[in-house]
Structure to design on (356 residues):
């Protein structure tokens, strides 16, 4: 029987175990979207994960949706990320950069000059985003032109190349949580009538083209995709009938040989199991746990074959040595939501490891 503590082969990359540190926005980047020495310490502390996936990292300036998030579209950012990857590799870890374009999620005050958030269609998300000026309502995004859609794909490609140059072992394309890639997938956020919208085939096109282009640049074995189909209404994303869309998406992506598919499970376990069955590669699951952090109970999902790798968020945030703690059943530090976003070392690098 395979367990979560057994090694794994991720498209040729050797993982020490099957426990994944899920991507989590921490909003602690320095001016210019630069990761810091504290960022390097944070990820290096968690290098015992089989795989670390970083916080969402914008592939271009217009992709930023939150304050103090890092980018990977400038030479300075690449150099700063190299300090992080070197620190993780020195501890024997494996780290992928999550490439996240926020699309319509964000606000003009977070962007330089007269930039405004963009999206597949001029449809505003309901809700608010935190900014340095306080919470603000989401704005109506500017619709990307066809040429701009292609340019955005090229920006993902450039960011992926930058990630490899910065020492990352691969990249994860963020197609979940209501950000740009999922905005193209959703029939409410995407109301286009050109080749990028309308039919299922057209709505999946952006995700597929990004995956193809990035794979051609850095190799499919270095590329993963995160999804949150249908029943995860993050950022006002609406997918009332997700099955046809994601069946078509998986059918189009399977031939590429991506490193993995990473799914955030919603309330519909049958949908998750269907996607798991249809996906031909490595399957990472961030399971639904009814409001509590993913814990020891979920380790059985590796043992029964539901998932190949298991992603932990809040528990990894609060427990830098999480694999060791899971192996002995705890105890576990409790995450402090007050320090999730922004600030310094408190709630970031000061969570203790097990004694001894």
């Amino acid at each position: 029987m395979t367990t979560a503590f057994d090694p794994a082969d991720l498209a040729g990359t050797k993982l020490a175990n099957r426990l994944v540190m899920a991507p989590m926005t921490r909003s602690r980047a320095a001016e210019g979207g630069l990761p810091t020495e504290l960022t390097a310490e944070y990820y290096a502390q968690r290098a015992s994960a089989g795989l670390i996936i970083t916080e969402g990292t914008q592939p271009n300036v217009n992709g930023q949706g939150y304050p103090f998030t890092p980018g990977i579209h400038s030479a300075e950012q690449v150099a700063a990320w190299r300090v992080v990857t070197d620190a993780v590799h020195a501890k024997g870890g494996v780290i992928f950069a999550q490439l996240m374009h926020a699309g319509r999620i964000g606000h003009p005050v977070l962007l330089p000059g007269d930039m405004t958030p963009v999206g597949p269609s001029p449809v505003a998300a309901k809700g608010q985003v935190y900014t340095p000026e306080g919470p603000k309502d989401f704005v109506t995004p500017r619709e990307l032109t066809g040429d701009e859609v292609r340019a955005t794909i090229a920006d993902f490609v450039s960011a992926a190349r930058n990630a490899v140059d910065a020492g990352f072992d691969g990249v994860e394309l963020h197609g979940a949580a209501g950000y740009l890639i999922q905005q193209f997938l959703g029939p409410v956020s995407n109301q286009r009538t050109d080749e990028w919208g309308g039919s299922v085939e057209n709505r999946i096109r952006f995700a597929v083209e990004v995956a193809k282009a990035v794979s051609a640049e850095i190799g499919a074995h270095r590329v993963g995709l995160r999804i949150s189909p249908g029943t995860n209404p993050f950022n006002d994303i609406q997918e009332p009938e997700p099955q046809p869309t994601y069946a078509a998406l998986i059918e189009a992506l399977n031939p590429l040989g991506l490193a993995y598919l990473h799914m955030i499970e919603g309330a519909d376990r049958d949908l998750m199991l269907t996607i798991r069955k249809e996906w031909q590669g490595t399957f990472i699951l961030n399971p639904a746990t009814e409001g509590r952090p993913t814990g020891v109970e979920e380790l059985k999902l590796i043992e029964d074959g539901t998932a190949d790798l298991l992603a932990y968020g809040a528990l990894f945030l609060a427990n830098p040595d999480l694999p060791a703690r899971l192996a002995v059943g705890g105890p576990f530090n409790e995450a402090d939501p007050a320090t999730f976003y922004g600030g310094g070392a408190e709630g970031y690098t000061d969570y203790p490891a097990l004694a001894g």
Summary: The chain has one domain: 8-339. The mean pLDDT is 97.
